[in-house]
UniProtKB/TrEMBL annotation:
<dbReference type="GO" id="GO:0008234">
    <property type="term" value="F:cysteine-type peptidase activity"/>
</dbReference>
<dbReference type="Pfam" id="PF04203">
    <property type="entry name" value="Sortase"/>
</dbReference>
<dbReference type="InterPro" id="IPR023365">
    <property type="entry name" value="Sortase_dom-sf"/>
</dbReference>
<keyword id="KW-0378">Hydrolase</keyword>
<dbReference type="InterPro" id="IPR005754">
    <property type="entry name" value="Sortase"/>
</dbReference>
<feature type="active site" description="Acyl-thioester intermediate">
    <location>
        <position position="196"/>
    </location>
</feature>
<feature type="active site" description="Proton donor/acceptor">
    <location>
        <position position="134"/>
    </location>
</feature>
<keyword id="KW-0645">Protease</keyword>
<protein>
    <submittedName>
        <fullName>Class A sortase</fullName>
    </submittedName>
</protein>
<dbReference type="GO" id="GO:0006508">
    <property type="term" value="P:proteolysis"/>
</dbReference>
<keyword id="KW-0788">Thiol protease</keyword>
<dbReference type="InterPro" id="IPR042007">
    <property type="entry name" value="Sortase_A"/>
</dbReference>
Amino acid sequence: MNSHPSKFNLSRCLKWLSILCFILAIGCFAYEPVKSHLVNHYQVQVNRQTVNQGLRHKSSGYDMSKVKPVTMSQVVSARMHAKHLPVIGQILVPSVGLHLPIGKGVGNETLMLAAGTMKANEKMGQGNYALAGHHMINKSALFTPLWFHAHKGTQVYITNMKKVYVYKINVRKVISPYDVNVINNTKQPILTLITCNDSGSKRLLLQGHLRRTVSINHVSPVIRKDVQARTNNHDVLKGY
């Protein structure tokens, strides 16, 4: 007597299970575009006003031990607070396709969207100007292009939107995360760039000497056009 209701209930359960699976599948397909949208639409145009505002902001901290891996929730949080990101300049490496804002400090939200200064009171063109950036699955995102394409001789431009500082990389090596002395200050003006490898167990160190300092109004037209354009964060979470 109860066999038909049971079959009916089982049929309804299977039907709703199929609908649920379909909805979940749609959600999975939409997940990557949503993540990409969140990051790709943070393409800030850095100018003197944004730099002046960033310099007045409190830093996001300088403790690298507190830096977390990039996650969806981290990026969502960073995008929600993007207007508070203390942007103080930008870094441009044309030969590897890297163009990012520079934020003050290495707080998690800063590093989700920008390169971050590794010490307090760093000044472009003076001493050891040290920047950190994330290594991502997407080879175009954040500091990842440096790992795959930067080499000795690569030119790096950093700017505070008043002057452009041109450095030439002359050191490339893999170091331990505990080699913190590489960001110590120096008498000679150098640039230090740090990013991790895929597993996070090692760090890539790039260092270069300052070659010249140019007013932003007298830099080459190509570089001036690039630094006046929007930065190009690319699909930071692609593959996650």
